[in-house]
TrEMBL record, chain A:
Pfam family name, one: Med18
Gene Ontology molecular-function annotations: transcription coregulator activity
Role of this protein: Component of the Mediator complex, a coactivator involved in the regulated transcription of nearly all RNA polymerase II-dependent genes. Mediator functions as a bridge to convey information from gene-specific regulatory proteins to the basal RNA polymerase II transcription machinery. Mediator is recruited to promoters by direct interactions with regulatory proteins and serves as a scaffold for the assembly of a functional preinitiation complex with RNA polymerase II and the general transcription factors.
Family: Belongs to the Mediator complex subunit 18 family.
Name of protein: Mediator of RNA polymerase II transcription subunit 18
InterPro entries, A to Z: Mediator_Med18
Protein location: Nucleus
Originating organism: Drosophila persimilis
Gene Ontology cellular component list: core mediator complex; mediator complex
Keywords: Activator, Nucleus, Transcription, Transcription regulation
BP-aspect Gene Ontology terms: regulation of transcription by RNA polymerase II; termination of RNA polymerase II transcription
UniProt subunit comment: Component of the Mediator complex.
Automatic annotation (TrEMBL), chain B:
Keyword Membrane (UniProt): no
Subunit composition and interactions: Component of the Mediator complex.
Family statement: Belongs to the Mediator complex subunit 20 family.
Subcellular location: Nucleus
Protein name (Swiss-Prot/TrEMBL): Mediator of RNA polymerase II transcription subunit 20
Main location: nucleus
Top-level taxon: Eukaryota
Flavoprotein as UniProt keyword: no
Automatic annotation (TrEMBL), chain C:
Region of interest: Disordered: 210-232
Cell location: Nucleus
GO molecular function, one term: DNA-binding transcription factor binding
GO annotation, cellular component aspect: core mediator complex; mediator complex; pericentric heterochromatin
Keywords: Nucleus, Transcription, Transcription regulation
Species this chain originates from: Drosophila persimilis
Protein name: GL12596
Sequence ranges of Low complexity compositional bias: 219-230
Amino acid sequence: MASVSSARESLSHALNNRFLPNLEYLLQGSILDSAVEHLMHRLKGLCDNVDTSPETFHDLEVCMSLRQPNSNQPLLLRVRRALGRDAPFQMRYLGQPEVDQRRPTLVRSCMDCACTNGILEFLTEMGFRLEFEYIAKGYMFRKGRMKITVSKLIKIIPGKQQDMANEPISQSYIVELSVVAPTGQENVGEEMRVFAEQLKPLVQLDKIDYKRLGSMP
Amino acid sequence: MGVTVLQPYPMPEGKSGAHIIDYLGKRLLSLGATHAGQFLVDCETFISTPQPHNGTPGRAVHVLHNSEYPASTFSIIDSGTGKQVSLVADSIFDLLMLKMTNTFTSKKQTKIESRGARFEYGDFVIKLGSVTMMEHFKGILIEIEYKSCMILAYCWEMIREMLQGFLNINVGKDFPTYFATQTIMTAMGQQQLHAKHNDLYEPTDTVKQYLEQFTNYRKHVSMHGSLSGTSGIQQPVHMSSSPVMGAAGGLVLIRS
Amino acid sequence: MSNSVNISVETTCENQIREIGYDGTELYQPPPTLSESLAKCAARIDFSKTSLDDLKKEEKTAAAAEEENKDGTQFQESLWPWDAVRNKLKDALTEICVLSDVISIAKDKRYLVLDPLLEEGDDTKPIVQVYSRKKAISQAAQVLLSGAERLRNAHSEQRSRNVSDFHIELLRLRQNWRLKKVSNAIIGDLSYRTAGSKFGMSGTFEVTKAEEASDDDSASTSTTSSSTATNNGMQMKASSALRVIVPAELQGVAYIKVITQKDQEDLCTAQVNLMGHGPNITAQVGVWQKTLEFAQNVLFCKELFAQLAREAIQLQAPIPHVVIGNQIRATLLPNIQLIISLCHSTTFDSNQPAPINDHDHVLEHSLHQLLREVHYKNSHHPFPHPASAPLGPTKKRMLAGPMAADRETLLDMTKSQTILEQIIAQAQHIFMRKRTQYVLDTLARDVKDPQIVSHWNAMNSPTMSCVKINIVTHGYDAIGRTSLVIHVKERSLKCICRDGRVMRLSYEPQELRDLILCQINSHQISCLVSLARCMAWTVLSNSNHLGIGKVEPLGNASSCLLASPNGDRMIAVQIRCDPQIDVKVYIARSPRQDFFPSPLVPEKLWENLGGNFKEVKFDKIEGKSFLNKMEFLMASLTSNTA
């Protein structure tokens, strides 16, 4: 009988053999509320499962940060929870985005981890502090391995996460096109670029460099 | 998925661990149990560096894996204050811990595991684990699971009989210390007696029992280490970790 | 790497050959120096375009220069390269000088007066213009009118001949099928790829306009439509302006035939043919609709068969599945085989009888549904929640980590049944159900007393159905009723009795038969016991398992001993069930009439012990059923003593 391999071994095995999807390819854009209907129509036409109505989602995202002694960049972890659904919490680590001019999309390392709902308390105990939180509400589509979300970001009045009275941050929807794939699958970006091309001119999906937006509020 | 009790096997003098494992395995097989694979439970502890300037005490995050639950990583955090928070996550959580190496450093010297053969007998699963830390044999842990029940109070007698009859371990009538009645704080801030043996059993409970036992083994080592004076390289690490280990150990004492 | 080869194009030699010596050496003209090339360029300047006069003069001078050049090149070639340029500039200077003189004279207005010239072009009269325009417009009107007339003619012709318009038909085609334009051709796709199929075979077809010629003749003369039209056994009534060309491998009719066979004898057959599904829209659209539907059906059948054949080879069955040509054979139960074959005929013969009519709609539907389910699963993946979670894993797998799923649960998630496995299971179940039905029906027919009533559940799953069996005696329903439930599975039966006993039976019908007979047995005895109580008889003993005769695992002969109310009569009943139900009834009375004191048993009181049991000719007793007869018997024995 074969001996049991430890969890760490099988994880590094998955990493080395490129099973583990750990890179996120991302394109982002935004569209005004008034035009979102048109975008939805186009997405319905382009994406898989057109026969069913688009999948909705309503998530609360909490971003926690940990100050690290030897670096001035805090470690950020995003914890997302589906409101009104019985689904595990998702913890997400996102690395620094690489805006490589040669690549058609933004690429960043990414780790998704489903956890029990004690995660926020756990992180607090670890020393993490609340950075910001918001509610994302909208529609999800898929086309092959591409995920397209059209979401409205909603501001949270602290302590009133469940409240319906929370207001949207802006008069537009954020549109994200993303693929999480293992390292070394370079054709993903091209696939996404072609798809993004089909959404023009309704929405211009682009790689957005957050470092340049750093000074904005 | 049932109730699991973890029991350290008292080591008789002058016998090697392998010999006892062999003996117990043969005993189980001859009594009708069947061999059903291997198992592994491992534990790695990450220690945060205390930050005196903002008053955060040193914290220990224990990350455990159980081969019985291959998709999960269990982690338990011991804040310096004696509070324990546990988390069950996907196995990718291990990689996330590596992102925090600046704050939480892994103590390789205390990496401990229990590994061995797995036996099945009807609704019982018996695991004979030999505990090793840094490749050194530390002791034997016997895990016994009764699959048809979710509450210890209903099947403790049966498990006890199994332990006594099959493995010849003398176990008292009382529930094991992990399941003993303890005082907890309610959400309202009141103290309340809580009978853990009446709770629905969860996989985390197995892992917590392992952590409890592993902590005992480690404590043993650090005591021995300080007495006999181990190598100079290991010494400072043990010294730095001792307050945390002490806290964890203290927790166990409170419970028992 | 591309296959292109770089070719460099350049002049063979840079300088002209001036002379070739007798020995073959070529003397090259030396390349022009800078000043020489400047002179050459300057000579090219065209000074002539300044005025008409100049142009004329230029021609002359050019001709003269040509002459001159001829001489010049011969004799004074390199003497004066700027000569032409100088001459031209000189001429220009002369002209400028004359012009300036003229202007200076004209300024005084004494010797020279400048008058504007009369414009000559605009002397056409307006009336002429009107006429010419009128003529042009009428010509244009003529063109438009004749075009309209042609269109009207064509339209009315179409109306009268009921010929549909190509574009209208194309529009209808587009509403039902996927089409795209590739350069000049229109290509359609009838494959199931957009619905989630991963079958490799292409399902493209081409759309063309039917030729005029074929419209006049009967449509069947044209090659493409004749093949499709006659294949499908339809006569083209209305000729269509649109023609679809389906690849050869998709032409014809195909269906999948499923036969369950026992020793070469067909038990049940099924065919998968999607024809006739969905609303019939052929009437409103062209004949091509039928053609395409048939082709799509061929494609579907081929995909289904390819999938089944692949699975048949991969599956590790105890008795391996056999795939030969267009046939898959799988063993369902001993001696019973499932044969799935793909029938594809490209020539339709109307004389040929329609393929077996009594096909099994259930299996036909299942096969169709199973492949559609595969398609559906290919295209419908669950969405993750929360939205940031990765795409791909199922909801169960997403929960596995945080909920700490154990190894077995995780292993179960990876397992899935193939289409072949499922269809075999369903066929097995259908077979098991038929067998069970047969056993129950024959038993109900053969055993008149008690009555066996079976209720089949209307709601079944494809691999599990349920029957409830009630055993009652007519007229004695209130006294006792034995009921049991049988779950009919794929290869086994599960019987649940009223008392909670659960028995698992194999696929052998004899086992079920035995079980029901034993149940009848115990029914009779338990009813007899209740009946006896009603009649104030005492039950001395009863046993459901006597252990005599053939010992069956499910039950055995049963017996019962009854005593009359005052204890002077006894009835013993034994019911055997192997192989037929056999009832034996004995009676005894006390005090026994044939008691004679003997030296061993001298006292008279021993006569009360009861005598020997004497068998009753049970079939001679009046009564419709066993209980009825027993009631009579008990009643008569009671009244005898009274």
